[in-house]
Amino acid sequence: MSQGEKIPLLKVPQWLDSWAVGGWHPQDGLDEPPHHFYVSSIPLRTLYALSDVRRRDMSARKQANPQPGYQRPHERERSGKIARYLQYGYPLSSQRSLDPNEHRDLIHPGWLPGSVLVNLLPEGAKRTRSGEELALQPQYATSIVQDGGTSFLILPELLGSEKRLPDNALAPFEVIDGQHRLFAIAEGFDPGDDYCVPVVLFDNLSPAWQAYLFWVINVEPKKINPSLAFDLYPELRNQKWLESGEAITVYREHRAQELTEILWRHPESPWRERIELFGNRIAGHVSNAAFIRTLMASFVRPWGPEEKIGGLFGSIDRHGKNYVLPWKRAQQAAFLIRIWQKLEEAVGRSDASWVKACKRDKTQAALQIEAERHAAFVGQYSLLATDQGVRAVSVIFNALCQANYEPLALDAWQNDAFSETTDDASVTEALEELSALAAINAFLTSVSCALIDGFDWRTSSFPGLTPEQRNAQAIYRGSSGYAALQRAVLETLCSSQDTAVSEAAKGAEALLGWLQ
């Protein structure tokens, strides 16, 4: 394929005056969209070569000014099945145990008549890929030109023996829908230049409009469930046009429920079987409803003009713009589990007087919820095992991670796995990946140690407290105790001797403002 090769395009005008009645919202990425798109036939291998559907690179660099833009996750089983379908058609695509050489009568055409939906990036466009901001270089850009009344797509010259762009280059095509047809080539199957697919091309469509298209094609017709859609296309989490319906509520409430259930059941979770799903009241346990409300008030909350701080799993403020961290369920659950693991480890190492008092107290020990677990962490007299404590931990860690976003390089953690439901194995895999991210783990450890060593987490009903101590701890009881505990915990972190912790805490204090 030489530079300047032209692919003919069919221009498709689509516009109604009624669309403009509501006005446009450039501040949300929803400026006036194009009044047309294009349809073409492009070799599948060429489409793959120019599309940003490559495997991710985990060694991403920190970014100072993140921009929106996501790579869709890759489901290898699905793309492998499509690759076999292309070669042998159905039913051999679904029966891998059958050898095509022995069942030639079952070989049929592997037609793909459905269109791949693609957005063309203009030269200089910027996107974030694996935590690194990339710009589309001139030598890799495509363009649409008019020649004799016909539209043509001008392709760039592909470099290297593999006839594809370098892995560190931003590709000119963004695949909005149909990526797994392209991933079939990543499985090692090369269909040649004679296997073409129909392609619908939009020119310089914003990520917000791309999210809109993905929604109306895949979610509204109920091809996939909404919760999965927010993992497949994270940009959906901050779309205001979804606010008027139930879909965004489905994500926030259902995601909080999903994460709570994972915390309750995962073998490595410090909250395993300590969240009461059916309304029982047990000392050292927290109710399912309380955990869900806490996540919706912290990690899963949205950011916008009416919100001072968003959630890492919802949307957040990055340099004055609404931004979504594209972690999926397994990553989100692993991150929550890791926070509580670090807190429990800090309790086990601490020499704080309140921790020692919990361990010595016979009543506390007798009522300890789980054998060989520290009473200061799971006992009925520990605020860490109460609704107020869970809320404080969640709100504070959510704010701290946003205040320390760039040093933690949260965008660098990429994970391609996704499914309709999140099983324990995928969470375990995410925990293993998370263990390799030194900056995140070191920060969570430092904060946890400062929280446990510097703050008294005993409840006011702890046996043996002096009247003064009991009065001091009593302010954390009841509905007013939520905000009081959060403020007190953050004040402790602000005065920490660990500079990284204290600076992040001061930043979190400014973000919270105070909310809770």
Question: Can you lay out the helices and strands and say which pair or pack?
Answer:
Elements: E1 6-13, E2 36-43, H1 44-49, H2 76-88, E3 116-120, E4 126-129, E5 132-135, E6 143-147, E7 150-154, E8 173-177, H3 179-186, E9 196-203, H4 207-219, H5 226-232, H6 247-265, E10 275-276, E11 286-287, H7 288-297, E12 316-318, E13 321-323, H8 329-349, H9 353-360, H10 362-366, H11 375-378, H12 387-403, H13 405-408, H14 424-435, H15 438-454, H16 467-474, H17 481-494, H18 499-512
Parallel strand pairs: 3-9, 10-11
Antiparallel strand pairs: 1-2, 1-7, 2-9, 3-8, 4-5, 6-7, 12-13
Helix pairs in contact: 2-3, 6-7, 6-8, 7-12, 8-14, 8-15, 12-17, 12-18, 17-18
Key traits:
single chain; alpha+beta; 7-stranded mixed beta sheet; elongated
Overall description:
It is a single chain. Helix 6 (247-265) crosses helix 7, helix 12 packs across helix 17 (481-494) and helix 12 crosses helix 18 (499-512). The chain is elongated. The chain has helices at residues 44-49, 76-88, 179-186, 207-219, 226-232, 247-265, 288-297, 329-349, 353-360, 362-366, 375-378, 387-403, 405-408, 424-435, 438-454, 467-474, 481-494, 499-512, and strands spanning 6-13, 36-43, 116-120, 126-129, 132-135, 143-147, 150-154, 173-177, 196-203, 275-276, 286-287, 316-318, 321-323. It is α+β, with helices and mostly antiparallel strands. Strand 12 and strand 13 (321-323) form a beta hairpin. The model is unreliable at 54-72 and 365-370 (pLDDT under 50). The protein contains 18 helices and 13 strands.
